[in-house]
UniProtKB/TrEMBL annotation:
Name of the protein this chain belongs to: Glycine cleavage system protein R
Residue ranges annotated for the ACT domain, each copy included: 90-169
UniProt-listed Gene3D superfamilies: 3.30.70.260
Superkingdom in the source lineage: Bacteria
PANTHER family: UPF0237 PROTEIN MJ1558
Length: 169
């Protein structure tokens, strides 16, 4: 079996997942994992598909005709995970929205060699104060020789500086 990673994006409308799933199934693929979402009127995501080696080229070719609905890019999967056996860290952040929060948080993580596995962010109305709140949920892993306490301390210092509530676990 060959594992392919599909990145997809298109104007949001009903039937996009079905159109993609039909092409995958009709070409012998098995839809294994996905992250899909509507954001700002676009439907976007990543799908991991396993397909028999002899059918992989056929699947790639069959994905092109759905470009009218979805733009699909096919990537070869890298099955080895850098996270295997390394310490995990979960970060929850909430504070007043302002430009640069993701840049600053990701800068601390990168400086400590922390790799993001999953990250979701959103903005929402601040119920009592008005304005917008920024919320982030991050799952990441430290390098093998990473110092979790140092990462925590750096994130907590940043949280005080940019005035956000932060939970690191």
């Amino acid at each position: 079996m060959q594992t392919l990673v599909l990145t997809v994006i298109g104007d949001d409308q009903a039937g996009l997942v079905k159109a993609l799933a039909d092409v995958v199934a009709e070409n012998g693929g098995n839809w294994e994992r996905s992250q899909l979402a509507e954001l700002a009127g676009k439907f976007a995501g990543i799908v991991v598909v396993a397909v028999p080696e002899e059918r992989a080229d056929g699947l790639r070719a069959a994905l092109a005709p759905i470009a009218g609905l979805l733009d699909v890019t096919v990537h070869e999967a890298t099955l080895a995970s850098a996270a295997d056996g390394t310490p995990q860290v979960r970060i929850e952040l909430l504070g007043n929205d302002r430009p640069g929060i993701v840049r600053e948080i990701s800068g601390v993580l990168a400086a400590h060699g922390v790799s993001v596995d999953d990250m979701s962010t959103l903005t929402r109305e601040a119920p009592m104060a008005g304005g917008q709140l920024f919320e982030a949920h991050i799952a990441a892993h430290l390098p093998r020789e990473g110092d979790a306490a140092a990462v925590r301390a750096a994130l907590e210092a940043l949280a005080q500086e940019i005035q956000v509530d932060l939970s690191v676990g």
